[in-house]
Fold:
Amino acid sequence: MNAKEPHPRPTVFHVTHWKAGSQWVSSVLKYAAPRRVIQPITNVQGLLGGPVRQGSIYTPVYASYSQFRAFVPHDPAHRTFFVIRDPRDTLISWYFSLMYSHESEWPSVRRSRDELRGLSKSDGLALMIGKHMQELSRIQEEWIAAGAAIFRYEDLVADEQKTFKQIFEFCRLGTADLHRRLIVFRHNFKVQTWRRFWREDRLSHLRKGVVGDWQNHFDDRLKELYKAQHGETLLRAGYEKDDCW
Structure:
C-alpha cells in the first residue's frame, strides 16, 4: 500500500466526558470490532498509554481538545467523534456516583464522598457546580469550538439504532446492518436494567440514564448558580436557547 494512501481501516477515537454514556458506547464498539479496540490507560506514555496504533479504535478517551491534540496530531484519515451530554444531567449522575456507586479505593472519590455526605443534596450540588463542573464546561466548549463531529447522549437515548448507525457510518466500521442492530439491541440501556424497569437505584452505576433528570433535583438557587457559572456553555452546546429555564 502506498504510504500516502489512507489506511483501509481508519483509526477511530471515541472521545467524551464522564457520565455521558461512555461505557455504553464503548461496549457497542467493542462488540462491533473486538480485535481493533484499545481501552486507553493514561500513564507515563501519555493519554493513550502508548503511541497511536493505526487502524485501532480507542474507546473511551476522556480529554479536552487541547489535551487530546497534545498526543494525537490532526490527521484527516482519523475518525474522531465526541459524545456530549447535557451537563446538568451529567452533574446529577456524577453526584450520585460520587455519593454511592463509584469505587471508594480512589483517594479523590473518598475525599469527595466524605465532603458531600456532610452536606445536604442542594448544598452538595452547589459545591459541585462551583468546584467540579469547571473542567467539564471547558471540555465541552473546546470540542464544540474545534468543530468536531459531535453525537449527543440524548439522541442515543431517544433513538439508539438511528444514532449508532450514524456513529458506525462516520467511523466507517463496515458492519452489516443486521449485525449492528443486534449489537445495539443487546446493549440497550433498558435491557441492561430491565429488572428495575427504569426505577432509580442509587447504588448502581447505571442509576437512571433519564434525559432531563436534573429538573427533579435543581431548586431555584441551583438554577441561578448554574446559569451564572456555566450558562454560556449550555447555550454553546445547544441545550438552551436563552437563560429563561
Summary: The chain is about 50% helix and 10% strand. The chain has two domains: 12-86+137-192, 87-134+197-237. Residues 87-134+197-237 form one domain.
